Amino acid sequence: xxxxxxxxxxxxxxxxxxxxxxxxxxxxxxxxxxxxxxxxxxxxxxxxxxxxxxxxxxxxxxxxxxxxxxxxxxxxxxxxxxxxxxxxxxxxxxxxxxxxxxxxxxxxxxxxxxxxxxxxxxxxxxxxxxxxxxxxxxxxxxxxxxxxxxxxxxxxxxxxxxxxxxxxxxxxxxxxxxxxxxxxxxxxxxxxxxxxxxxxxxxxxxxxxxxxxxxxxxxxxxxxxxxxxxxxxxxxxxxxxxxxxxxxxxxxxxxxxxxxxxxxxxxxxxxxxxxxxxxxxxxxxxxxxxxxxxxxxxxxxx
Length: 302
Hints:
By secondary structure, the protein is of the alpha/beta class. It has one domain. It is 44% helix and 16% strand. α3 (48-64) packs across α8 and α4 (68-76) runs antiparallel to α5 (84-102).
């Protein structure tokens, strides 16, 4: 017997991993969270001690990710890293893999799994545009399009298409042939890439930190209902994200450290003259040369 869907009587909510603001509340850092929000609004730096504390907590979150079971283990272990954290992440990924097999055909499940595991290589490239050849040597759109769509519909991946001409609405100019894919949780990316807690929290020269940082910002924006797009101008320049805000389309560059030199952002600003631009990095809050500096730990404020 078929039953009708109760249109208008059901409120649909999409669940995302915990974001960094929720993580701060979980580890009883509400006052720090409030100070971060205040500095974001006023473009005033946090005092050095608080900035360093917030960056340290951010690096902890970057390793943990936002899966509730992982965060709960961290808190129950006295806000410390336990040996169980990796096994919890492994169990989550195993559960995802089981769903891929259960809710798709056998052949498709292999393709879905291949795409999912390729993301760690996709984001390791200098240009993080999705490449079918990194899934399989003879991979192409026709072969893997359905697998990608399955992962997007399941909420396991996040989609960020290319915009060539930044005009409103942004989705009117999106390029369906060029796009980036990110994991829905950076902590799972850490696990899939076999990244250690030391590398994320202590190693300032860690080569994969850029990939983790970009994934963190992407999932944070998605969690806060930001539609995700990026821009490039051939081989000349590329801006990580474009945000549609009341002030217009705002370019957003992401850096994993305090080094904030960004040729691509300068190219975009000169070409399109946005009202202002955003740079997310390890640098403290500020507003200079029409660029709003947002520390990585404040990405949720956007």
